[in-house]
Design a protein that fits this description.
Blueprint (H helix, E strand, L loop, with lengths): L1 E4 L2 E4 L3 H5 L8 E2 L2 E2 L1 E2 L10 H14 L9 H21 L7 E4 L2 H16 L5 E5 L8 H10 L2 E5 L9 H7 L4 E7 L11 H10 L3 E5 L11 H4 L3 E5 L10 E5 L1 H6 L10 E5 L2 E4 L13 H17 L1 H20 L4 E4 L8 E6 L4 H9 L3 E2 L1 E3 L4 H7 L4 E5 L6 H18 L1
Parallel strand pairs: 5-17, 7-8, 7-9, 9-10, 10-11
Antiparallel strand pairs: 1-2, 3-4, 6-12, 11-12, 13-14, 15-16, 16-19, 18-19
The structure holds ligand C6P.
Length: 416
Amino acid sequence: MSARAGNIVQPGLDVARIRADFPILHQAVNSHPLAYLDNAASSQRPLQVIDAVAEYYRSDHANVHRGVHALSQRATDAFEGARSKLRAFVNAASDKEIIWTRGTTEAINLVAQAWARPRLGPGDEILVSRMEHHANIVPWQMVCEQTGATLVVAPIDEKGEIRLDEFERLLGPATRLVAVGHVSNALGTINPVREMTAMAKAAGAAVLLDGAQAVPHMRVDVRELGCDFYAFSSHKMCGPTGIGVLYGREAILAEMPPWQGGGDMILAVSFEGTIYNDLPWKFEAGTPNIAGAVGFGAAVDYLEDIGMDAIAAREAQLLEHATRVLSEVPGLRIIGTAEHKAAVVSFVLEGIHPHDIGTIVDAEGIAVRTGHHCAMPVMEFFGVPATARASYSFYNTEEETERLAAALNKAQEMFA
Ligand code: C6P
């Protein structure tokens, strides 16, 4: 199959056909067609997801796990059915290993408070990398304050790759947990997490991978990676906001205490004591985001229909094209030039502050994110306060990058 994407014929995905599934993409912004290049912040949703959520509310909504009545049972089936879809999507061994959270951030905080806090003490170390998102830094800093453990930071190099030799050197008997990003949101670097997990395991450490920027863009198999925990968010992979997943190996989750108390996470409550629910519900106190789970399940169906390998191949084309075209803009410096990258191009433009870049290209209908991308230690490493970031999804086109490059050239002339 071949498809016309912009004015370049691409083998592979039928991009025009896929774009028809995304109503939001077909609008004018500031009198220009929208070019949405802010997918690392949040992707857009296809009709299949929007309709699944609407249909759930139209026909099936009730609270889950609580009623014998028909709607409650339908809602429970939809909710638990979505969990099974997510389990299959990341190849977990059991539905018990898929914990619904509000997103990646909450998933990491759950591990910090329910796994690390009861176990760690002075002399213990948590190893992260310099390129982490704040969501994979601050919860560990908090747990270090609470327990007296130490946060250790593995360095990166000028390309934005982890220095594996240093990473290995920093692993030792004191390392209790390694918490690293699978893909960097600020740089696009795809980290060698299978190798890093093996190194960490050899040192006797538990491993959490932040998969927020990986799961939307490539096939992820948590068992093949060998990690203990894997966190990701629905809203970056065509699903609703306010829901995400913590994958945890069943044996490790079983040993952890619950982190929030309330309804649904119990089997029996009396003033003498409470018996906690089984996995996965032990970690899901209160009425969950049922519609979110239903929409997340629909998003996974949608991505599987296209195929994660096809998505990865299409986004690799977009990255290769964007890197080439944007590099030709005078004064543009790409921040993050790792050999293995997801389709993220962070850049600075000589003489123009990234925030001005954001405003100038927005006037042309182009959405990019500007700022520190919640990764301030990375910005500090590269000596920049902020970058502009174009981040891609399979529904983007080469033409959108051409328009971004033209807008940047125009900005250069304005500021000359
Ligand atoms: N990055 C970005 O524009 P939440 O907000 O919980 O869904 O995801 C947090 C998070 C964790 N790890 C990584 C690697 C991430 O990229 C993000 C979210 C967005 O890059 C918003 S700051």
